[in-house]
Design brief:
- 37% of the residues lie in helices and 26% in strands.
- The chain is of the alpha+beta class and 194 residues long.
- The longest helix has 19 residues.
- The protein is globular and about 45 Å long.
Length: 194
């Protein structure tokens, strides 16, 4: 099985492109994180500190690209035609057992409710993780109030494994954190791959 851990990520699809961020993408990333809807979800103020935090997060993603071996892949989701940033998706292996990664997905508020976009991004990233990085298990977590992500995880064959109190922003909404896990074998069987 190939190991693409130190190669730049570029995954093309007819609707979206998943690719490593470049410094030129920073403004678009910070802009969607500063959207009032995004800040309201995480109870963040419209402040210079919030903007600085988003910029620092983006710079961390760029820094991960230079690590050898590369353990964390947080890449942009872009419109295939316009190259507009639609969100980001990641697989993080740092501090995880061998062949296990944590997936995270974030769509820009303008894309909330675009289920096909989320499905495409997750499917492409699962394929990359299992078939290019040689992962055996991909896990994730979400708030129980985020039923869309929970539904997507189970649609791909993931098993809900644990529920626990979440961070403050979840608690304030009356949510708790739900963990899920998906093995390569289950994903292959669910998707009828040979």
């Amino acid at each position: 099985m190939p190991n693409a851990a130190n190669n730049p990520v570029l995954i093309k699809h007819h609707r979206i492109t998943l690719r490593d961020f470049t410094p030129a993408d920073c403004d678009g990333f910070v802009a969607y994180q500063m959207d009032a809807r995004y800040r309201a979800l995480y109870n963040q103020p419209d402040s210079p500190e919030t903007r600085t935090t988003s910029t620092a997060l983006f710079e961390r993603f760029l820094g991960w690209q230079a690590e050898t071996p590369r353990k964390n892949f947080q890449i942009g989701i872009f419109d295939a035609k316009s190259d507009e940033i639609l969100g980001c998706i990641g697989l993080r292996q740092q501090d995880m057992p061998a062949h296990v990664a944590v997936m995270g997905l974030e769509l820009a508020p303008a894309c909330w409710g675009r289920y096909r976009l989320a499905l495409d991004a997750i499917n492409l990233m699962l394929d990359y993780g299992f078939n290019q990085l040689g992962l055996g298990t991909i896990t994730g977590s979400t708030g129980n109030g985020n039923r869309r992500i929970t539904h997507l995880a189970t649609w791909f064959g993931a098993t809900l494994t644990q529920s626990r109190p979440g961070p403050d922003w979840m608690t304030q909404k009356g949510w708790h954190e739900v963990d899920w896990s998906l093995t390569r074998e289950t994903w292959l069987a669910k998707n009828n791959f040979k």
